[in-house]
Design brief:
Rossmann fold; single chain; 10 helices; 7-stranded mixed sheet; alpha/beta; 2 domains; 8-stranded mixed sheet; VC0802-like; binds S-adenosylmethionine; 382 residues
Length: 382
């Protein structure tokens, strides 16, 4: 169980540099990074810790086998030779997820079915029993990554995506994914030492992620079902120890004030409920108001995730809102670090402030930018 194994940690497109930063801060050497993940070496106990503590990852995948296969029949026969009886409980539940680029495969569900058949047939010959199977990711999940003739099979140590923290019971409209909110805060170098204001907070994701970061609360503590506890021989004592260690990291002091506001009362209602579920409601001061009326305590960071045309709203109204955002940042936020998360040149141009830094993000498959503004008195128009 304590053997170091090749492990892939996956993430949403555009988050890999933040994931790498997190892994390095936790002491891992990152052997390579691509658009959707980072390769490390980790023990099974490390995987437990990563599930609990990573803020920008989707899944922790432990490499199980590499096989050569030209088509689905070869996938089946090669996969059936693998020692599934050592890792899969025949009384449990298994699901297969795949990512395939092979010219013989036209139905994306077919490789999942053939790999699942190989696993079940192997277990029947070893024990006379086969696990239940289906699409739920709450049991054991096997991941297949197959390109041309090369297939790599992973044991998924996470199960449901880590971005699904479990606190967002009320999404409101166009919410930001939790992992993106965490990466945005990393890009802002947010650590809770300065006040944070989040107008247009929607369901509260940025404010809630900020409170979790500021308290050094491992986001994975918010849920209990992880793939690492589903495999045969899962070490329950190691899991309890990792949870206890993560709890010890929680900061005793409260962070500088976090204020979140939205013009829609239902958004604030959703935010409050989500913050209660996340256990951080006492750290966030919520208000129903226009963004320009949001109260602040001291000077710090302000971040706005407004609506953008592709998903919501009419363009002319949006342009007017972004002009007002620019005026508000310029006249009311001198001395603050200002950030706007948005998409589309017309909206960015409407802000009419000099951008100090543009960081690309992909949110819900839309190309977005986090724009940073240095707001000194008399910030110049472009
Ligand atoms: C894209 S959503 C924010 C999503 C949020 N980051 C989340 O994760 O749920 C934009 C929000 O801006 C709010 N909004 C729009 N116009 C506003 C205004 N003038 N003042 C304050 N909030 C406004 C909307 O009600 C909506 O909740």
């Amino acid at each position: 169980m304590c053997k170091l194994r090749k492990t892939r940690v996956t993430c949403a497109p555009s988050l890999a540099p933040y994931l790498k930063q997190e892994l390095e801060a936790l002491g891992f050497e990152c052997f390579s990074m691509d658009k959707t993940g980072v390769e490390i070496e980790a023990t099974t106990t490390d995987c437990m810790m990563l599930n609990l503590r990573l803020r920008t990852a989707f899944h922790v995948l432990q490499r199980f086998a590499d096989i050569n296969c030209r088509n689905a029949d070869e996938l089946y026969s090669e996969a059936k030779r693998l020692p599934w009886d050592r890792v899969i409980d025949p009384n449990g539940f298994v699901s297969v997820q795949s990512n395939v680029r092979n010219e013989t495969i036209t139905n994306s569900m077919f490789p999942n079915m053939r790999l699942k058949d190989a696993i079940c047939d192997k277990l029947i010959s070893a024990s006379g029993k086969r696990p239940d199977s289906g699409s739920s990711t709450d049991g054991m999940v096997v991941n297949l990554h197959w390109v041309d003739n090369k297939a790599r099979i992973y044991l998924n140590m996470t199960g449901r995506k880590l971005s699904d923290r479990g606190y967002r019971k009320m999404p409101f409209m166009a919410p930001m994914r939790e992992t993106i909110a965490a990466a945005v805060l990393m890009e802002m170098r947010y650590d809770g030492s300065k006040p944070l204001v989040v107008p247009m907070c929607g369901s509260g994701t940025i404010a809630i992620e900020a409170a979790l970061i500021a308290k050094q609360r491992a986001p994975g503590l918010l849920r209990s079902n992880y793939g690492c506890n589903q495999w045969l021989g899962a070490d329950k004592d190691a899991w309890s120890q990792q949870r206890a260690d993560a709890k010890k990291l929680i900061a005793k002091e409260d962070p500088a004030p976090i204020v979140a506001s939205d013009i829609e009362p239902e958004a604030i209602d959703a935010s409050k409920k989500n913050a209660v579920t996340a256990g951080v409601d006492h750290l966030i001061d919520f208000h129903v108001c226009d963004f320009s009326e949001t109260p602040a305590h001291g000077i710090g960071d302000i971040v706005l995730h407004g609506e953008y045309g592709v998903r919501l709203g009419e363009d002319d109204d949006l342009i007017a809102t972004y002009k007002r955002i620019g005026d508000f940042l310029k006249t009311d936020c001198a001395g603050w670090d200002g950030y706007v998360f948005t998409s589309g040149k017309p909206l960015i141009a409407a802000i009419r402030l000099k951008v100090a830094k543009r960081t690309p993000f992909i949110n819900a498959e839309i190309d977005c930018r986090l724009l940073r503004y240095e707001l000194y008195k008399g910030s110049k128009d472009k």
